[in-house]
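name: query_chain
kind: protein
chains: 1
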Amino acid sequence: MIALRKIYGENWKKILSQKEGFDLNISEEEIRKSLSRFTNVKDSCVYMPKGANSTMLYTFSLATLDGIANYDCGEGKKIFNRKEYHPSSKEDIIDKELIESFILSYTEKDCLKRGTKLSDENYQICWCENVKLSFGAFNEKTCIPFRTSTFQERLKKQMGKVKRTNGREEFKCTCSNNKGKTIKGRYNSVTGEVKVE
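structure:
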């Protein structure tokens, strides 16, 4: 569901219903069950640094149908249930908020609303549009968290990577934070302009 919403936006259910032949009144649970035959990943090996287990497992659990992640880090099989994940440390709380904004925000409105509810004023949530300016041009829109103090630096680095591969794109973001402030940032890899206002 997460990927479908990111690809098709607010009309994901209508587009998917037409593409797969579903009835428009089908529930999300029925869609999940029907599509799970294509996305049923059983096992994978992942490097998890100590101390980051909960946030990584929370991320994995968001991609499962039941919110459960089974794992074994060498101490036997264990179960992580996202419904029972209620972090208490400041770092884990902000990590959870940032993960949710990136994975669960499908619209600009939802994305920017999450920014206003952040528990840490050092972060902002941005609705960004990546406009490819080369052959086969397409636009990609997504919700991305950024640290406020390094926003312009991150845009410069990202543009540098694009320029090194001779990419031609314009990247534009509208961001919100818990102070109710709206920040705009952008870069253009053709002109080399990077701006935050």
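note: The mean pLDDT is 84.
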